[in-house]
Amino acid sequence: MQKTNAFNRTIAIWLGVALILVQSLVQAESDTFERIEWKKAPIRLELVVGQEQRIEFPDSVKVGVPASVQGLLRTQSVNGTVYLLAHASFESNRLMVRELDSGYIYLFDVTATEEGDASHPIQIYVAGTSKPDKDSATASSDAGQVQPGYIQLTRFAAQQLYAPSRLLKDSPGIVRVPVSRDPVDLLHGGTVEAIPLVAWRSNGLYVTAVKLTNRTNQAQTLDPRDLRGSWLTASFQHHRLLPNGDEADTTVVYLISARPFEVSR
Question: Which helix (H) or strand (E) holds 24?
Answer without folding.
Answer: helix 2-30
